[in-house]
Amino acid sequence: MKTKTSVLVRVGTCAVLAVAAGVFGPPSPQAQAGVPKYEADLSWPKPLPDRWVLGGLGGVCVDAQDHVFLLNRQDVLAGDLNAGRLAPLIIELDPAGTLVNSWGDPNLLESRLHSCHVDKDNNVWIGSAPSGMVQKYSHDGSKLLLQIGKKGVFDSSDGTVKGKPLNSNAAQFFMPSSIFVDPQNGDVYVSDGESAGGNRRVAVMDRTGKFLRQWQPEGMETVHCLTVANDGLVYVCNRLGDRMQVYDKSGNFKKNIDVPWKPYTPPPDGKPTASGGSTVALALSPDSNQRFIYLINQNNSEIEIIDRQTGKILSSFGGGVGHFPGQFDQPHGIAVDSKGNVYVAENRGKRIQKFRIVGTATRSAGL
Predict the structure, then answer these.
(1) Where is 16: in which H helix or E strand?
(2) Which of 111, 176, 227, 232 has the most crowded Cβ, counting Cβ within 10 A?
(3) What's the predicted TM-score (pTM) here?
């Protein structure tokens, strides 16, 4: 009996590895045709200690060890704390979903946390909007290594959030929304444009925080997120325009990737009204070619899987609006680990969900 069980375990393990290899391994005709199929992992995360109470989760990022960092905005209702204790600003979970660390000094951080990024040296970068700054911390959060911009001082005509946005050629911000650090030279890319009425730009600094260049993506009221692919293409979210705009590292426009959507329930007047936008946050698949873009579509409360080269929506996952496993309540942050697991942070839902690969699907989402 033990021998038979051992064989079954080995067969099951090989099957899982085969699926992963088919999706993210060396390209083959079959792998090229396959699109990963996802389902919610109900065993992840493990319960948090001391009856911690989460606020909205502004963002999520993953390090090289597949540890997951959560940005807790701590915006809980007063009555919630009668039943528990306010969870820390930054929460680190291991691949099994177990808490390994937590940190965050509210005197240094701005509570409306928006996004994070872990660089090749395992340092954690954090952007808060509105804050006027981005920060670089040691992996354990014990040291603030670099701050670009000043907390509470905005790139505006009077230095306040009510002033006219300036889009200055300077290392200062209005509402930084997303960060990426180039592993080749340490350049820091910041999307500065979380909300309409603020700055509308992508700013680039060197590893010391010195301003290098910027560009203002055409037609964007909000510049809500960005990432840079291995091939040097910069993907920028036009949240209100329902598309991604693609540039090279110097800001030269390359193409648009449209993300169409339609209401699941047709509106009585026939006029769709956006409820957050269809391009809110994105992450790339971990294969060397980064074949897939994983994109949060808040309007349809789902994750789109997009072919990075063609811009075609290949599939999607997510069960609509709600709090059941696989459903979303204002998904706002997304990250992908080295195995292709997808993590989605919810703002209104105040939770993190892990989605694991359970096979491949070749049918498109039908959009």
Answers:
(1) helix 2-24
(2) 176
(3) 0.91
